[in-house]
Amino acid sequence: MIILGIETSCDETAASVLKIERGRFFILSSIVSSQIDIHRPYGGVVPELAARNHIINILPVINQALTKAKVKPAGIDRIATTTGPGLITALLIGVETARVLAQQWQKPIIATNHLKGHLYSSWLENKPIRYPALCLIVSGGHTELILMKSSQSLKKIGATLDDAAGESFDKVAQMLGLGYPGGPAISKLAKTGNAAAFKFPRPMVNEPNFNFSFAGLKTAVLYTKNKLPKIDQQTKADLAASFQQAATDVLVQKTIKAAQHYKAKTVMLTGGVAANRQLRVELGQAVGKIKASFIVPPIKLCTDNAAIIAAAGYFAKPSPWQKLTADPNLEIR
């Protein structure tokens, strides 16, 4: 099976051609047109700007993906496109493009959940996944724990009650004047900082559930920063390192608690924040101690791309192109 994936949920215009053969996944092409430089002056994504640039980029990106994969439209078996969650103005560009292509090429179309794309990115590694499995999806807009009893049996067992982990990284970076995107900036600065310099809270780690909260941690950083008489570069690095350690501790401890409770045999880490090296290392070490398998995709598959959307499209059923709609608040069901 060959699937064309299309992703426009936020500020990345992406297309990918994915081949699935005998249960193994092969990325024939993955093209991503980034808008980071366009949105950086605003300190975040501007929905209208994102949509305009998706309009400009979407067809060239799809053409590049097909050309690199050496696949013609006739060779495509289905089209998978992100229908949510995300920015409605951005989602509509991908949805409408997919609708037109599905109609013109007479191909089945798959409405794909962006979060499921992150979840199924683990399948692109072609590693054995033993059940029950637990997936931590951690990104700019979401922090969720998904229990899997099979490849298509999904149950959300935990989520953030306020800010997502990635959102807190962006906001702390903004407090420290590090610019956008905040995650990579915090991670880079934290390398020269002392993670024990500031005692930030680990919200909800002792609560008898698997939910998260990062608003209080973010606020603690703000109050601490405002009380400091002087903030030099080393102090900024210490703040970044202490914050990153606190956020990592919360994510690791809650995930391991859930994995032990449900006796998970595989633990997966996915989403944009999964690109954070410290989180990758510390969660991997913690999973090893409970004798479970650990899967984390390469960094290029953690951030938004269309290969993960095509992967999710493999596990879903086609929809009539006439009924395809964008849902900015789509959840995993």
From TrEMBL:
Annotated binding of substrate, by residue: 137-141, 170, 183, 276
Acyltransferase keyword on record: yes
The reaction(s) this protein catalyses: L-threonylcarbamoyladenylate + adenosine(37) in tRNA = N(6)-L-threonylcarbamoyladenosine(37) in tRNA + AMP + H(+)
Location, primary (coarse class): cytoplasm
Cofactor details (free text): Binds 1 Fe(2+) ion per subunit.
Pfam family, one: TsaD
Keyword hit for Mitochondrion: no
Cofactor dependency: Fe(2+)
GO cellular component: cytoplasm
Domain of life of the native organism: Bacteria
SUPFAM superfamilies named in the record: Actin-like ATPase domain
UniProt-annotated location(s): Cytoplasm
The Gcp-like domain, residue ranges: 27-310
One of the record's GO molecular function terms: iron ion binding
Signal peptide bounds: none
Keywords in alphabetical order: Acyltransferase, Cytoplasm, Iron, Metal-binding, Transferase, tRNA processing
Record EC number: 2.3.1.234
Database matches in NCBIfam families: gcp_kae1 (TIGR00329), T6A_TsaD_YgjD (TIGR03723)
Assigned protein family: Belongs to the KAE1 / TsaD family.
UniProt name for this protein: tRNA N6-adenosine threonylcarbamoyltransferase
Organism of origin: Candidatus Buchananbacteria bacterium RIFCSPHIGHO2_01_FULL_44_11
Gene, per the UniProt record: tsaD
